[in-house]
Every structure is written in C-alpha cells, then in structure tokens.
Amino acid sequence: MNPRIKCLRNQLNSLNIEGMIVSNPINIKYLTNIDAEGELLITRRENIFLTDGRYVEAVNSALTIDSEIIVWDKRGMIREDYENYFLFCEKVGFEESYVTYEKYKQIMQLYKINELVETEGIIEKQRRIKDEEEITNIKKACEITDQCFTFLKNYIKIGMTEREIAYRIEEFFIKNGAEGLAFNPIVASGTNSSMPHSIVSDKKIEEGDILLIDLGCKYKGYCSDMTRTIFVGKVDDTIKNIYDMVLGVQEQAISQMKDGANIKNITKVAEQELKINRFDLIHALGHGVGLDIHEAPVLTSKYDNLLKENMVIAIEPGVYVPKSFGIRIEDTVLITKNGCINLTNSEKNYTIIA
Ligand code: GLY
Ligand code: MN
User: The domain spanning residue 108 has which CATH number?
Assistant: First the structure.
C-alpha cells in the first residue's frame, strides 16, 4: 500500500476530483520516491509515471510493488493512450503553480479533459505533517548540521574568506553522510551580515566581525536549517544587548510552539518585541522544512493558521541594520502535542572565535 497516495486520493474524492496530474518533481518524490523527470498521473484506477528513455530503467529498479506505480515510456505512446487516462473523469486536478501556460495548453490538447481544476497546493498541504520516516531523516540532517557547526567553531580563522568557509561546509556535509547542501550556505561577515540572504564573497574574516552563518544539509532528500551569529575576537556590549533580544524573541516563540497554537499570534508577539526595540521583522518568522527548504506553513502574522503535531518548522527571527550588521538565530524544531523539540541544538550563547 502507498499511504501517501491513498491519503491524496481520499482528499481528491472529497472534492469530487476524479484524477490529478502531478508536475512538481518534489511532490512526485514525496508520493512515489521517484527522482526523475516526468509526470505522475493519478487516474481512476492507477498511478502512472510518464517518463522517457533516460529514466525508465532507474525508476523501475527503484520501485517496489508497494509503490503502486506503473511506469510508461512516452516514446512508445500514441494519442489514444493519453486520451484514455482520464476517460469518464468529470474533473481532473492539476498544479496551477507549476504548470506553465504552454504546458497547460498541451495538457488540454493531449488528455482531452472535460474540466481541469486548480488544486490549491493539495499535496503541499499534505506534506506539512511529517510521518515517522520523514522525521527520522530530518533529525539526521539536523544532527549533521550541528556537527558541522562544532567543526566550524574550530576551523574558522581570521583571514579566511567567506567562500572558503562555505566550501568547507559543503565538504563537511558530504563527508559526514549528507547528500549535500539543502541550500547555498550564507556566510556573511562584518557589514555583509546586514543582508538576510547575503551571497558569499571573497571578503576575508576580520577581527571584530560579526559572522552570520546559515547552513543546512539534505539527508535522504530531507533538509535541515540552522543559523548562528558568532563573533570574531570580541563582541561589543551594544551588540550583546541586541543579540540577547533576538535570542529572547526566538526562545519566547519556541516556548509557544505546540499543536494547536496559532502561528499568527506567535508571530505578532515576536514582531511586537522587536518593535519595542525599534526593529522590524523584515522576513517571515519561520517556515516549514521538509523535502524543500522552504515549505508550508509560513510563519506570518498576516493570517490565522494553526501549528499541528509533527510539523517541522524553522524559526528564525533576525534584525538587520543596513551597511552595519545583522543578527539572526534559527533552529529547526518538531511540533508535538504539548510543545516542540529542538532538532538543531548548537549552542546559542556568545560564540567567540579567534
Ligand atoms: N535558511 C535559509 C532561509 O530560511 O532562507
Ligand atoms: Mn530558514
């Protein structure tokens, strides 16, 4: 049995949708474990993966009976094959965020679908709640991330460039069991730290720099996400105060995170605390983490949204003073019935490197 596809079919049934064309490769991986170019068709009777000669062998050898997937090579298909997939289906869903207009026209022409309907992120919503296997993989990714931070504290020295450090992060991940990066690491030193998504440069690490490091790896497809802001040589008292404030905001948010808690309220509390200290939260307070580094839910005060048990969330308040400095502290946590568990556990007191 494929429980993820079963769950999707139940949801489609309740919306009176009789089939679905899945185009987002990450959603295809989630439902089938297939890592290949192609389209997944959830038809009335079967689940069909349409691919081409480059992938047929690899996909077939990765599937088991329990995957409940039939693989079709597009080269051998004729027009009638396409037309038969959704025969007698009134409504067929598609992923409106992934299908270009050109692809949309192609789908309409090939499959002869009566009514092609938007599915409003139905699979992304399903992915918000992680199962046991997903949680195990994210935990492992977080563990490797913590190990990497421990390594970096001893490794980083004055005179190294941001790029060298970013390179060593990737190397560490691969040497320690990860598949690779979850995203390009952010290694932002000195004034570069004021840009939340600073691009690594050839700037050398200098005495007195703030060093913001945002890193995450992938383990069996699943991501981790952690940021630490550390100090080179020394840390000013004024900066210490701001660091403590950001850390307080993060810990306050973490202390409120549990099944049923309203994301809007948690975010508002964080925004207000920053506001009292004359800072604005210029990005989301956090986001879901899973097969994608950024997935649902987004932590925002714009609308009501509840946390649920077994969501995995990155919580990342930060303050940024243009052309001066930035401080962000981020952890990946697992939501439980009564609270949440930190999956990244690197130290958060002032880390000063020589
Ligand atoms: N840690 C990268 C991000 O959340 O954007
Ligand atoms: Mn993040």
Answer: 3.40.350.10
